[in-house]
Amino acid sequence: MSTAPLAAPLAASDRLDVRRFDSDRFRSAASRGRAIVGSILGNIAILAVLGVALLVVPVAAALAFGAPLLEYLR
């Protein structure tokens, strides 16, 4: 069994620049936060559309059949 490393060590030019890495991580966190807020707002919009759609049928039925149904039930 060998204890040699599987990969060769990185040359100085191949190493990550720590400052660039930190700014990339910050940028990634900011875009991730934007994506989360966007998805939450999208879900709220979808729920609002579903709520309106669920109210359309009962309101339309009440407008169409409300008066005759009340007369019939009297």
| Radius of gyration of CA atoms, rounded to a whole number | 31 Å
Residue share in helices?
over 70%
Task: Look at the structure and give the mean pLDDT.
Answer: 79
Could you tell me the number of beta strands?
0
The stretches of 5 or more residues where confidence is low (pLDDT under 50) are: none
Oligomer: single chain
Could you say which overall geometry the principal axes of the C-alpha atoms support?
A: rod-shaped
**For the report, how would you describe the main beta sheet?**
none
Number of domains: 1
SSE order, one letter for each helix or strand: H
Cα end-to-end separation? 94 Å
* Number of H/I helices: 1
Helical/strand content category: mainly alpha
What's the SSE blueprint?
Elements: H1 18-73
Folded structure, characterized:
This protein is mostly helical. It has one domain. The chain is 76% helix and 0% strand. The protein has 1 helix and no strands. It has one helix spanning 18-73. The longest helix has 56 residues, at 18-73. It is rod-shaped, with a radius of gyration of 31 Å. The protein starts with 17 loop residues before the first helix and ends with a helix. Keywords: Membrane, Transmembrane, Transmembrane helix. The chain crosses the membrane at residues 35-65.
What would a concise description of this structure say?
With 74 residues, the chain is mostly helical. Helices cover 76% and strands 0% of the residues. It has one domain.
Tags for this entry?
74 residues; mainly alpha; 1 helix; 76% helix; membrane; transmembrane; transmembrane helix
